[in-house]
């Protein structure tokens, strides 16, 4: 196969995959390989995959099958991310069109793997070194107004349905200095909002430049001092790792947005124990109450799984009850998907598909009800939004509210501007606004 002249990356799944995709793009660009332009065929296609649910994995393999062109040629294909980590060499047995397999902890070696594939090899690299990939990556070369920044990798919680501990490894925190340096670089290149990422971001710990040991709160307070950085967010958190310092930061740090993504997964204590979630419905609700005491306008987002093995109708009703109690501004909800190698995949009493379908529809209807109510509560309010992209209509731009709602407004502002708006309309997934004024940079 010829040495590729350009590349394209397609990322599936979570925000950490988006971040990893950006870093792989910067790495290849630093080696002199440009990203393929829109509409241009790529010589190298990297599928940056997710393994959380079966459909995401199958979609990646389906994409591989569609890579063959009408003339029989195809690009070099690299399977990256969590499917690559989980299936390793088996992926190439499944598809002869996969030239490279590279796990999420090894993508810093991608240029070498491309060279090997160009020489006829079919390299597989799923080593899981202790976060050394960050040291091997080039400095950040570009940024949009809103940027992701990975501060931690892996997870030690071992929820019984989840493959993350097996595909991303144990919890490891990036060093303080590396994070601060990358944040400064992102702001220098135009970022006004940074979202700190980790499979379990609230477990981050480290030492600051004065040798003080602390958790995510300490890091947030330092990053909030960066001139030009207007907003901070973090995701995803685990209820077991939310401490008083982090709760207090939401009341003290103006740049920390009033938005918390805190997965609960289910409302039944018996199901939560079977999931190995380390919290109860009551402890979760008390935690939410403490955050809302610190920041009364806090928006809560969550994750839900319906149809976990053995879940009864009554236990599902407990999930609906916790949705009503929390009043989620947004949420992600899924049918349970058995992942090979996880304890839940071998549990008895797997729930039938039609039962899961019905429960998911009922859950999503209730979540949508609360989400719309939250959006409607913003009508008449004024606040700044960060412009991120153009809208569908001429002169229309779309930005994010402090609560992460997409907000559209007619304005001459450009991407990266912060503008003050008044909310006039609430839709299920967005807000409509009128322009008041541009916020000084």
Shape: globular
Distance between the termini: 50 Å
How many individual helices? 14
CATH topology of the largest domain: the name is pyruvate-formate lyase- activating enzyme
- Structural class based on helices, strands and sheet pairing: alpha/beta
CATH homologous superfamily title of the largest domain: tm_1862 like domain
Task: Give the DSSP E fraction (strand runs of 2 or more residues).
Answer: 15-25%
Unreliable spans are none
**What's the number of structural domains?**
3
**Largest β sheet strand count, sense and barrel closure:** 5 strands, parallel
CATH architecture of the largest domain: Alpha-Beta Horseshoe
Q: Return the average pLDDT rounded to an integer.
A: 93
Quickly name the level 1 CATH class of the largest domain.
Answer: Alpha Beta
Radius of gyration computed on alpha carbons: 22 Å
- Provide the helix percentage: 25-40%
Q: What is the β-strand count? A: 20
Strand order of the largest sheet: 1-2-3-4-5
Give me the secondary-structure topology.
Elements: E1 7-11, H1 15-30, E2 44-49, H2 54-65, E3 76-80, H3 81-87, H4 89-94, E4 100-102, H5 110-118, E5 124-125, H6 133-136, E6 146-150, E7 152-153, H7 164-167, E8 172-173, H8 176-188, E9 193-197, E10 205-207, E11 213-215, H9 216-223, E12 231-235, H10 244-252, E13 259-261, H11 269-275, H12 281-294, E14 299-306, H13 313-326, E15 330-335, H14 353-376, E16 382-390, E17 396-400, E18 406-410, E19 418-426, E20 430-438
Parallel strand pairs: 1-2, 2-3, 3-4, 4-5, 6-9, 9-12, 13-14, 14-15, 18-20
Antiparallel strand pairs: 7-8, 10-11, 16-17, 16-19, 17-18, 19-20
Helix pairs in contact: 9-10, 13-14
């Amino acid at each position: 196969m010829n040495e590729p002249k350009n590349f394209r990356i397609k990322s599936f799944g979570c925000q950490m995959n988006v971040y990893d995709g950006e870093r792989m793009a910067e790495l290849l660009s630093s080696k002199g390989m440009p990203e393929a332009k829109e509409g241009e065929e790529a010589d190298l296609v990297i599928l940056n995959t997710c393994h959380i649910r079966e459909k995401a994995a199958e979609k990646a393999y389906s994409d591989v099958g569609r890579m063959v062109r009408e003339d029989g040629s195809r690009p070099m294909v690299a399977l990256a991310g969590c499917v690559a980590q989980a299936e390793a060499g088996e992926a190439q047995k499944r598809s002869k069109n996969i030239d490279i397999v590279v796990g999420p902890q090894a993508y810093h070696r991608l240029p070498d793997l491309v060279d090997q594939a160009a020489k006829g090899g079919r390299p597989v690299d799923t080593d899981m070194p202790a976060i050394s990939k960050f040291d091997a990556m080039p400095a950040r070369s570009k940024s949009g107004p809103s940027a992701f920044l990975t501060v931690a990798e892996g997870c030690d919680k071992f929820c019984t349905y989840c493959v993350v501990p097996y595909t991303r490894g144990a919890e490891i925190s990036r060093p303080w200095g590396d994070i601060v340096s990358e944040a400064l670089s992102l702001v220098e290149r135009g970022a006004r909002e940074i979202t700190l990422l980790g499979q379990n971001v609230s477990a981050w710990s480290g030492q600051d430049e004065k040798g003080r040991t602390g958790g995510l709160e300490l890091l947030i307070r330092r990053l909030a001092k960066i001139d030009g950085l207007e907003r901070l967010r973090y995701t995803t958190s685990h209820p077991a790792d939310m401490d008083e310092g982090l709760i207090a930061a939401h009341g003290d740090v103006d740049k920390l947005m009033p938005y918390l993504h805190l997965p609960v997964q289910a409302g039944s204590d018996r199901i939560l124990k079977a999931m190995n979630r380390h919290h109860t419905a009551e402890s979760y609700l008390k935690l939410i109450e403490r955050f809302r005491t610190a920041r009364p306008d806090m928006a809560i987002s969550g994750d839900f799984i319906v149809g976990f093995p053995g879940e009864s109708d009554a236990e599902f009703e407990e999930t609906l009850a916790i949705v009503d109690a929390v009043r989620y501004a947004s949420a992600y909800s899924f049918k349970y998907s058995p992942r090979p190698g996880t304890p839940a995949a071998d549990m008895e009493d797997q729930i039938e598909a039609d039962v899961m379908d019905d429960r998911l529809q009922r859950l999503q209807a209730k979540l949508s009800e609360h989400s719309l109510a939250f959006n409607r509560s913003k009508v008449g309010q004024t606040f700044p939004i960060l412009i991120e992209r153009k809208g569908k209509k001429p002169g229309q731009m779309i930005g994010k509210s402090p609560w992460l709602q997409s907000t559209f407004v007619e304005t001459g502002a450009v991407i990266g501007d912060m503008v003050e708006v008044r909310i006039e309309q609430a839709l299920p997934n967005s807000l409509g606004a009128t322009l008041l004024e541009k916020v000084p940079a």
